[in-house]
Task: structure prediction
Amino acid sequence: MNFSSKRIEEAVNAFATLPGIGRKTALRLVLHLVKHPLENSEQFVEAILGMRRNIKTCRVCHNISDDDICSICTNPHRERSVICVVESLRDILAIEATGQYRGLYHVLGGIISPIEGIGPAELNIDSLLERLRDPEVREVVMAISPTIEGDTTIYYISKKLQGVNVQISAIARGVSFGGELEYADELTLGRSIAARAPYRLQDES
Amino acid sequence: MNFSSKRIEEAVNAFATLPGIGRKTALRLVLHLVKHPLENSEQFVEAILGMRRNIKTCRVCHNISDDDICSICTNPHRERSVICVVESLRDILAIEATGQYRGLYHVLGGIISPIEGIGPAELNIDSLLERLRDPEVREVVMAISPTIEGDTTIYYISKKLQGVNVQISAIARGVSFGGELEYADELTLGRSIAARAPYRLQDES
Result:
């Protein structure tokens, strides 16, 4: 695109550096800002700079945080005996949205991926081992994506945890709730059958 | 989404004010900025604020511009006898990308749309009439979308131009190049037949 304005071009290029935003979308965003009052753009920019300049990483769990220790780690109502190991903040948001988990988290900051050059040393594994010295912790839940890299990461961490007196568990894998069997992929369906569990009638329990 | 960080939430809300960006996309953009150095965010913000604070509207054609008069209006290589009337800057970019037009532009800033409360008074029509007083201008090309609102706008402007010694033309309408006839909509196909033009063999000309 040949913009008649250098300023517009610079702003479009700035937006286009963001993931998933091409130059056409970037232009739409820029024109949106142009159409609205200057104050809107200033507020937009302040929110972003304020966030970027002040954001911290939680000293305990490596979650993104406004303070040295994040609001989940400092929350007195969370169970301190369970630590859920996740790849990134996004997984925390997804799990929190379910409302099914009341324990703490530990953000690895990635998963082991030789192709992307991410080895165990790049991940927050040492600090996890450190946290497990606290005798209060009794369970580590691996909430890592069921991919080859994810499985490698779980395997590596489990090996490291050998000898540590803590229960290691992994989130359940199988066919999705509400999903049609015929549309499940072969690997998932195959493993679901292999990992079948005894069925209990509700009123039997 | 329940963010553990107020700062993150504010930045997500800021991005989510932009058109076509929901909260999930906004979060991805924010996490992208968090993952990259502070300088990247500062450059991003500078490009946007620099644009928004300094952007002007061309005094002649109402195109977006870095200066009082835009780079198309001041370009000595553009034909000054033709003015192409468009709805917005985006149409200028689209037409410029074709490389088929070397004249000037006039940005209306919208089209007549009673539903959206846009009447002729909201559009840059008076300044167009002003420009046509220049005897150098010999043709006005209406490059307005072929919708009911667009046609209304063309009709209104044409009425206004009665008595002005200038040729009014409209961009050609018909089936798209490379399009299959059977997929063309009825209105377009019907009008294409009604507005058929004499066919000339290339080597006859």
Summary: The longest strand of chain B covers residues 82-86. The helical segments of chain B are 6-16, 23-35, 38-54, 89-98, 126-131, 148-160, 186-194.
